[in-house]
Each structure stands twice: as structure tokens, then as C-alpha cells.
Amino acid sequence: MIDYLNFVKPWDAHYRHEVATNVKQLMCWRDTYTKSGATTPEVWPAKIKHEGHTISVSDIWFVASHMGKLDTHSPATLERMEEEGCVLSDGTFIPCDVVVGCIGFERNTTFCEQLTGRDTVFHSNYLDKNMIYLADAEIDESAFNSFFGSSVLEYAKFYTNVYVEGLERPDALGPILWGPKVEACPVQLRKWTQYIAIGAELIAKDPACAKHAADQVTDRTSHFYRTMPPATFVEVNRKEWEELHTRL
């Protein structure tokens, strides 16, 4: 739902949505927590989400919370296991028969380093001149404020076009993509906002890159409205929620 709304709502010239619609969307999201009985993130209202985490919009989590089949203990962690259940770091005892370790994941940046011999990446995704590294990065605080949404595919589409432009016009784009003034960081510390910022700079300074972004957004919006207009999307989601209720 979050990405769908990000893709179908109108954009301004700087690929920002109208503030009023963003506020309305956030209020509906918070209302979903209240009505479902799901545990509100303890970082609210200072932050939308925890650093390094994706955004909490799982359908099955809201439905299961509403049905009383799921309970969330946060920010507690597993302290120890006993014969009849688990003890959390806040002292809570949870009776259980099965414990499933779902503790997240780490990006496999070591493969990039082994394959290329580079352990540093420019914020533009470039490892070196004409050498680009397109892979997921940490979804940090404001990562959703771009026309990429939270889609790795959408970001890769844009930067694939940027890569071709860089090959054809290295003198024009090199200073933004791999030049001495381009910020860099260790590969394992890459963040979404880094290449979002470089993307915005490319759009502002280079007409060809700006056209690639505009065409990508236009084609994507047209595709969504042709294949899954808002009314259809709402109806499909309603059926999915009803099916989740039935299965649970």
C-alpha cells in the first residue's frame, strides 16, 4: 500500500508529494495500529521507524493483532529459554512450544569486496570510474522521500540509465559520479539516502538524467492506472484481508 500510494499520487517538479496527502496517509497508518490493537513502535513520534529497519506495514501482522492471535513485545529481546517458554529482557515470561529465530538479515557486501577488490563506494553507487554497484542498502530514515519508493528495482532502473550516460559522457557526469568531490563510505555502510541525494543532483544538473527520471515516473504511473487503478487496488486488498482473516 505504501509504495502503491507513493507511485500513483501526483509529483511536483522535485518529485515530492503534496504535504497534506502525506499527513493523511500517516494518520491512516497510525489509525490502523489503534484499530487493530497492534503495538505502536516505541520510536514514534520522533521517528517513523527504527534505523536499519523497513517500515512496519505487514498486512498479516495487523490482521493477526486484530484477531488476538499475535502479540508484540518491543523493545524487549530474548533473554533466555526455559522448559515451558521464554524469558524476555524486560522480565516477561512467554509460554511457548516452538521458537523461531526471525532476527533480520545482513547484506552480503563481502561478495562485492571479494569480486571487485573495492571496499569503498561513492554515494552515487560507483566503485570507480565506469564501475557501478547496484544492490540494496540500508533503508534509513528518509529513504521513502523519493520517486524510487522503497523499490530496489525502481532505483536500479534509474541508475542503469545513469550508467549508460556516464559511459557516453564521462567528462560531463564524472564530477558527480566518481570525481574527487563525491562523498564515499565503506560498502557495508551504504544508505538509501546517499544515492537518493545523488539522484536528485543528477536530475537538477543534467537534462538527460532528468528526462530519464521523468520518463520512468510517467511510464510507471501510466502502467499502474492501466493495470491496477486505485479502486481496483482497494478491492483486491480488501479480498486479501478477508482471506487472511479466514486463514487465521
Taking all Cα atoms into account, the compactness measure Rg is 21 Å
The number of helical segments is: 9
How would you classify the helix and strand content by structural class? mainly alpha
What portion of residues belong to β-strands?
5-15%
Shape: globular
Q: What string, H for helix and E for strand, traces the elements in order?
A: HHHEEEHEEEHHEHHH
Counted beta strands: 7
Return residue spans where pLDDT drops below 50 for at least 5 consecutive residues: none
What does the main sheet amount to? 3 strands, antiparallel
Placed side by side, the strands forming the largest sheet appear as: 1-2-3
**Mean of residue pLDDT?**
89
For the terminal residues, how far apart are their CA atoms? 21 Å
Instruction: Summarize the amount of helix as a percent range.
Output: 40-55%
Name the descriptors.
two-stranded antiparallel ribbon; 248 residues; mainly alpha; three-stranded antiparallel beta sheet; 9 helices
Topology at a glance:
Blueprint: H1 2-8, H2 19-36, H3 59-66, E1 78-82, E2 85-88, E3 93-95, H4 109-116, E4 120-122, E5 126-128, E6 131-132, H5 152-168, H6 170-177, E7 184-186, H7 192-205, H8 207-227, H9 230-247
Antiparallel strand pairs: 1-2, 2-3, 4-7, 5-6
Helix pairs in contact: 2-3, 5-6, 5-8, 7-8
